[in-house]
Amino acid sequence: MENTEMTLRVGITAQTLNVQHLRGTGRYVQELLRNTTASDDVKWTAYAQDASKPFRVPSPLLGNTDVFNFPGDRFQLWEQVGLPQRLKRSGVALLHCAENTVPVWQPVPTIVTIHDTVLWEEERARLDHFYLHKVQALAYSRCAAVITISESSKRDIAARWPVLADRLTVIPHGIADEFFDDRRATIPAVLQQALGTSPYLLFMGGPQPRKRFGWALQLLAQCGRADLHLVGCGFGAGTTSIDQIPPALRHRVHFAPFVEDSELVALYRGAQAAVYPTLYEGFGFPAVESQAAGTPILFSPVSSLVDLIGPLAWPVDAEDLSAWIAALKEVLTLPAQARSELAARSIEWARQFSWRKSVERHFDVYRDVLARSRQ
């Protein structure tokens, strides 16, 4: 029987699980739910909006789901009015807004995770700009605590909203357990058919300009390996046209479908190297995931990535293409014994990024907020 005096009832926004395919923030929310155990005495209520789409909460979920529609999606009324109304009669003790934004009306103590400040640095339509820059500034000022995912993001958040500086807690992400599983999955069949036995590089990031897919294409073109292919991850349908790829490279460039965690691990493990030429990240999953899979990765020590340089990382100046090419050639000619030794060290290094540890630290924040609210 549930001990209602000890059980912490937490509401969590989970719109990023109410989708066809998970992305980074959705993975974060899913792992918080998935890594909760019965001994934690935490019961979740996961909130989402669209019953016509899958709701990718873990099964079984320690708690329940509440998927409800509310008029005025264009004006963010689900978040600003519908969700607070729901909270008043839900019985939850506090709300964790895990997806960057938060309601101004907060009928229970509210915690927000601001992953990074990218949303505020991009051009927006007038209404969206007002919502992010004015409404959210007010909403954040009312939050009991703010969680972010790296020291880099903490600095950016404190600079943008100084009032939040003394409420910020850094809790790094973990990576999926599948990266430490000895069982060997296979890459998706469509990629296996396209690649055959050809060696490949793995590009992580998708089509956003700051991820620099074009940079990865230049590396492929200039690395001196005509047999090498490139697999791009994170591209939805229609986000990259074949016309954007130089004709001479088109037969060597392939796009991965959305993959399960086990298939993603197989993609990393099968790659000669991963390339991650992003210019900014709040955390940077690929920098850890590739090293956890025992695969070298090239990236620039920018923003949060400066803290993710492990044994199999080749940090390279962001704007020095010749240095990137030289680093890639070095990785591609790495002796098998040296690569194996680095991989063993790298896998151990990556174990520090544990979702379970991350979840425990979240619970510490929850209980601190609840204790302060009771006082």
Automatic annotation (TrEMBL):
Annotated Glycosyltransferase subfamily 4-like N-terminal domain residues: 24-177
Domain of life: Bacteria
Signal peptide extent: none
The UniProt record lists the keyword Lipoprotein: no
InterPro entries, sorted: Glyco_trans_4-like_N
Keyword terms: Transferase
GO molecular function, one term: glycosyltransferase activity
Pfam families: Glyco_trans_1_4, Glyco_transf_4
One GO process term, biological-process aspect: lipopolysaccharide biosynthetic process
Protein name, UniProt field: Glycosyltransferase subfamily 4-like N-terminal domain-containing protein
Organism of derivation: Massilia eurypsychrophila
